[in-house]
């Protein structure tokens, strides 16, 4: 009898440990595959914007865990076409960056909010390749609490201007944000053209581009963002 | 230090209470007359503790880059085991009475309790442990006086949880059993809701499509976690009241059937019962204060210091060095030509140069800066600005503008300020 019970307990404990260890094994495997997945996403970004960078990164097996900004159950980044831009928004673990004084420290933040902005077919007329990262945009962001219709209160850096930065999966616009309250939000992006930072265009017949930079900011909204704070 | 305390104490309270509750409900026998499973709960705690430390270390060093992978299966197991353990607690009077006659049941109850303790500790602790490591920035030294204070807050937080659980434990012999069992069952029911919320959080962020009502319910549960922690302590009001009632019912005088020794025993019980209840009440208030006043103190709203006076004539603002050379932040106000009220700041840097810029940055607008512990901090994003970079463009640095220094004073052309008034709209 005693032996049976000991066996039963052993099975129970071994089962729970196996569960945990199996999970650890998965994450280690995922870690191992990080480089591969990131390489893929970088090259994808460079060649074809239709495959959003790290799409499905929330899936098991990918590197760090990116969550798309959108309604519950959104498994992949919801890219939006806006003028010459393809705009996606994801968030993931808070990140320490350098130089340190450019935004919230990871320890003070809830997540790192990222806008992936690449050129689409129209961007070719501005001299960019389709799928190219567009540098020197001014990307202003605001997180709006849908329950009040106003900018979220009680957080930190819940609105401002994204900085441009490089991660292992390539360049993007982003910022660390402190937002502890779960709820349904709306992320509004207002994107000013590179001309605002003095970016120029060739206009002569031989080397010039066909298009002109947009003059009014491009507005992109990611609506019904069901956000719940996470353990990263 | 306070920040670590108000995070660590609530984070470790549930495991501490659970360990105490299961120990009270399932401990039987004395000396050799104990079931072989009596130590399993301790093993559960040790396994959970070691696994949590290893997991936190792997996460902190980025060997594991997603906690969800581990937390997901752990939480699935935890919600199932929570229900089994709750059933074991409710059945504990029957299980522990004459336990020698049904040893198997006793062993199963202890096994379930051990697994629940291991899973609860394993899920709760990494969050707490990582509180220490997230403050260490890449390439920054670990052993600093700030880290020492943080570690102290951490240790005090863990100690406070253990003390609270130990205080509640004193009511195990003074309150009637059903009162203590009810409190334990309610505490564990709340723990189940917390674990279920954690599980739903993971599912919501992954693939599971939630209806709006489901998400609103989940959000409510997440946003009321502090209240749930407080409720986990306030359920012990039931045995506290029962303890006081039992204490006052204990007759200590005019009892002809009792001898002196028995009366002294009754007096001691009354004292113990009332003290246990009173200290439990103090513990509940302490937890409530930590989660309300303590947390609020870490999230204080900052009021900007008032602007100082300066000379303004013929489109030139003049500020003498003597007014701003103390190394502290000085704020000034200016009404632009378009009517916008603007602010600018001046601070003397370490090298003797002056850091001058708008009281606004490109990231956070006109939120303003304040001085704390010798650092200049943005009121909105709480970034500590590197003094050396004040005067340079970008990020959360004060928006720079032209100025001149000489003849013991700083001169600013108001037209330069007028051109930047858009930052204050």
From TrEMBL, chain A:
Keywords: Signal
Source taxon at top rank: Bacteria
Keyword Signal among record annotations: yes
Comp. bias intervals (Low complexity): 30-63
InterPro entries in UniProt: Metal-bd_Tp34-typ, Tp34-type_sf
Signal peptide residues on this chain, from the entry's feature table: 1-22
Ranges where the record places region Disordered: 30-83
UniProt-listed Pfam families: Iron_transport (PF10634)
Keyword Signal: yes
Family, per entry: Belongs to the UPF0423 family.
Name under which the protein is recorded: Amino acid ABC transporter substrate-binding protein
Organism: Bifidobacterium vespertilionis
Automatic annotation (TrEMBL), chain B:
Domain of life assignment: Bacteria
InterPro entries in the cross-refs: FtrD-like (IPR018758)
Any coiled-coil regions, as ranges: none
Membrane-spanning residues: 6-28, 40-58, 70-92, 104-125, 147-168, 175-193, 229-248, 273-294
Limits of the Membrane iron-sulfur containing protein FtrD-like domain: 324-424
Keywords: Membrane, Transmembrane, Transmembrane helix
Protein name: DUF2318 domain-containing protein
Source organism of this protein record: Bifidobacterium vespertilionis
